Amino acid sequence: MDHFDYVDGVLHAEDVPLPAIAAQVGTPVYVYSRATLTRHARVFRDALSILPSVRIAFAVKSNPNLAVLKVLAAEGYGADVVSGGELERALAAGMDPDGVVFSGVGKTAAELERALLAGIGQFNLESEEEGLELAEIAVRLGKTARCALRVNPDVDAGTHGKISTGKAENKFGVPFDRAGAIYARLAQTPGLSMRALALHIGSQLSRLEPLEAAFTKVGGLMRDIRAAGHAVTHMDLGGGVGVPYKAGDVFPQPDEYAAMVQRVTRDWDVTLMFEPGRVITGNTGVLVTEVVRVKEGVGSPWVVVDAAMNDLARPALYDAWHDFAAVAPRGPRMTANIVGPICESSDTFAMARDIDAVERGDLAVFRTAGAYGATMANTYNSRPLVPEVMVDGAKWAVVADRIDPATILAAERVPEWLA
Ligand SMILES: *Cc1c(COP(=O)(O)O)cnc(C)c1O
């Protein structure tokens, strides 16, 4: 459910017609609906309220925009961060450091120190080596780092290979059969307070079974660790719940997910932690684009739009589907290939797709672009960095400026010996 609907034949974000935004900000532009964001945050949180003790840390990487983080902070969300940059964003948005979880296999010494000084709630350690390095820093600073050990449960998430993270061959977490021994060693290391196991098996999961299998497996490990005399007071179940990108796709609903978690964790006696990203932000955004021209093709015509793989990378990276719709459809349909202007064949959003018939100058949207959209944007082909807008009822504001190629060029230098 979202708040992008047609009113008198024109697509609106809440009460704002998208052409009004395009006229002032230009295209391409991401448009987020605050009402949709709030709704998704509440639906997920309310679904989990059947569980006894819950902390939710929004996966910042899915949409790190400051205004988005502000909205989620107000809904009581913490943050799952994977870099020093994301940590600074979460703090800048006013998120309580205690609700911040730091994940990732490559946290540097400087990042670990900064996060310790900021007083974050939990470090999700991805190796014994990382734990020992963090312990040294904590002892030097006179701090104690609250930690989870991320375990690789060796479960196939059944999603795209590039967003699978829970198979033994993936780089994430420690091997399942070594986790007990590593936890025990780290639990005895000064500077660390081991309190949890963590897992995250992948993103855009369409079924609950792999999650259930992974949770069950890690629950068994938790019992073994407790039996060996170590405390486990928290369990971090990660993110990964998928969203429908295509009309007709059926995905697990938050209440089904919560019921499954309740069933598996009934006797765990822990605070459960969650790291949702896509399921919160996916539906909250569209990417508005303008048709540059329609070019004749061998099979279908090419609809060349002014958005490209640098603005929305998911189709090029993961063969992902985004619904495409005209902002003011005239009625007829066409079969077309939708592509951007970048000089790569991977700059393709859709092939032989049945779409609203469009012409040069028409506005259109790629839907469900609120997660892993603007956050992955870059300036390839010396294109601008795409701007972002947030709508709230009849109000709207630019929440990230377009960064022009001239600004980027100004940061480059020609060395004297080339001049
Ligand atoms: C990416 C990521 C998430 C969020 O994944 P979604 O599929 O967006 O819910 C959660 N936890 C970790 C550790 C991640 O890397």
Automatic annotation (TrEMBL):
Enzyme class: lyase
Cofactor(s) recorded in Swiss-Prot or TrEMBL: pyridoxal 5'-phosphate
Domain (Orn/DAP/Arg decarboxylase 2 N-terminal): residue spans on this chain: 42-281
Residues annotated to bind substrate: R278, R314, Y318, E344, Y372
The keyword Amino-acid biosynthesis is annotated on this UniProt entry: yes
Entry EC number(s): 4.1.1.20
Orn/DAP/Arg decarboxylase 2 C-terminal domain ranges (all copies): 30-370
Protein name: Diaminopimelate decarboxylase
Gene: lysA
